[in-house]
Amino acid sequence: MVTDIEAKDIKRLLLRVYRRYQSGAITEAQAYKETYLLNSVLKAIELTNIEERLNSIECILKESNE
Questions:
Q1: Does residue 20 contact residue 31 with C-beta atoms inside 8 Å?
Q2: Given 3-state DSSP classes, what are the helix, strand and coil percentages for the chain, each rounded to the nearest 5?
Q3: b/e map of 1-10 (b: 16 or more CB within 10 Å)?
Q4: pLDDT digits (tens, 9 = 90+) for 51-66
Q5: pLDDT over 80 (residue 49)
């Protein structure tokens, strides 16, 4: 079963990358790559949330004008 990833999930994964980097389990280059990807996913989540909220507002405004 596939579930939606939320911003809190990305936060948890970013903290995991940080801890792995601090402990020496991964290199700086690997941490950078993982962080870059996770931040890209986070941005997509944020934009999707904003888009959904904007669509809701537009629908409400449209209904009130009819």
A1: yes
A2: 85, 0, 15
A3: eeeeeeeeeb
A4: 999 999 999 999 988 8
A5: yes
Q: For residues 5 and 22, what is the distance between their CA atoms, to the nearest angstrom?
A: 25
Burial of 23 (0-12, 13-18, 19+ CB in 10 A): exposed
pLDDT bucket at 2, cuts 50 / 70 / 90: low
Q: What is the pTM of this model?
A: 0.79
Residue 26 sits at φ, ψ, to 5 deg, of -135, 160
Is residue 45 within 8 A of residue 11, CB to CB? The reply is no
CA-CA-CA-CA torsion for 12, 15, 17, 19, nearest 10 degrees? -130
